[in-house]
Amino acid sequence: MNELTLHPMKEIRVVVAGEHRVFVTELLDKMNATGYTIIGNVAGKGHHGLHEAHFMFSEQESLVMIMTVVPEEKVEPILAGLRPLFSRHSGVMFVADVAVSRRDYFGKTPARP
Amino acid sequence: MNELTLHPMKEIRVVVAGEHRVFVTELLDKMNATGYTIIGNVAGKGHHGLHEAHFMFSEQESLVMIMTVVPEEKVEPILAGLRPLFSRHSGVMFVADVAVSRRDYFGKTPARP
Amino acid sequence: MNELTLHPMKEIRVVVAGEHRVFVTELLDKMNATGYTIIGNVAGKGHHGLHEAHFMFSEQESLVMIMTVVPEEKVEPILAGLRPLFSRHSGVMFVADVAVSRRDYFGKTPARP
Fold first, then answer.
1. Which residues of chain A lie closer than 8 angstroms to C48, CB-CB?
2. More exposed terminus of chain C, fewer Cβ within 10 Å: N or C?
3. Angle at the Cα of B93 (from B91 to B97), degrees rounded to 5?
4. Which burial class, exposed, middle or buried, applies to A17 when counting CB atoms under 10 A from its CB (0-12, 13-18, 19+)?
5. Residue C34: what are its φ and ψ, rounded to 5°?
């Protein structure tokens, strides 16, 4: 395997109140999202909108950002798994394209001789 | 609305000295960038270049990273609004593609029946 | 130069144990990756896989995320430079597309009249 080859994957970032961190990481574990990085103690200001009453962060509440990288086919199950959390609590989720050099870290078995 | 549909948006990340955090968040508020996440106490090493004297971070100065997600049409006004800050102070700004599941959080009114 | 023009670049994020931060930043300095942002004290859970014994983070070990933005041609040399670190220690690296407004900060000399 050439370690310098980059493989396209999806990065998911979730920002939630610290008390919901375990909900997210347990979901990721269950989905075999095999690794994640957590940035603690971030601040957030609300995402106002139609759902203002339910979904807004209180200003400057302590939040965590949880980042994971997964193959594209895992994005939809993870979104579905987060839905119960986001239907009742503040939180945002972003999905972005990212490339990784070691695909086997992220839930895809590389072809090997 | 299908909450699992992903909508393309733009993510803006700004890294500035902590003292300029309010300049950025007030700009985002004014632009109706309806939410942002702030990672405090990050370290940065300078972006040397033609403007070295003016724009370089002093090594390891305490900085903040401010992240927001906006519809594409807000990127240019936000860049323009940051220009007075960046013309006198250290700072960098990145724009990236990102997808979100709840577009109404980020300044776009979703079509609703 | 129009400061509002966005130029495509590559963002590299590296997550490693705190003790390897200097290895990465010295590499970036050597590669003339002229700036970087460091988020300290992040937590990570392992990237299990074929290399489990060697490459897994111990759960919740204190890590750093080092972010830099470079022209595309620097991605491969930086990956190659990280290889000795990743062959012996835990760590992950992501590459993503990003746009910047001031290309001269990131190792590309802008055309100037």
1. 34-35, 105
2. C
3. 165
4. middle
5. -80, 0
- What are the backbone dihedrals phi and psi of residue A29, each rounded to the nearest 5 degrees, phi first? -60, -45
Give chains near C: 3+ CB pairs under 8 A.
A, B
- The pLDDT confidence band at residue B35, using thresholds 50, 70 and 90, is confident
Q: Which of A35, A98, A105 is the closest to C95 by Cβ? A: A98
Q: Is A49–B102 a contact, with Cβ atoms under 8 angstroms apart?
A: yes
Q: Which residues pair with A61 in a beta bridge?
A: A44
Residue C90 burial (10 A CB sphere; 0-12, 13-18, 19+): buried
Is residue B103 very low, low, confident or very high in pLDDT (cuts 50, 70, 90)? low
Cα angle vertex B23, ends B22, B28, to 5°? 90
Count the Cβ atoms, other than its own, within 10 Å of residue C60: 11
ipTM: 0.77
Counting one residue from chain A and one from chain B, the pairs whose CB atoms sit within 8 A come to: 76
- List of residues 6+ apart from C80 with CB closer than 8 A: A4
A57, A75, A95: residue with CB nearest B98: A95
Q: Rounded to an integer, what is the distance from CA C50 to the centroid of its chain?
A: 23
Task: Check residue B104 and give its pLDDT.
Answer: 57
Residues contacting residue A26 through CB under 8 Å, at least 6 positions apart: none
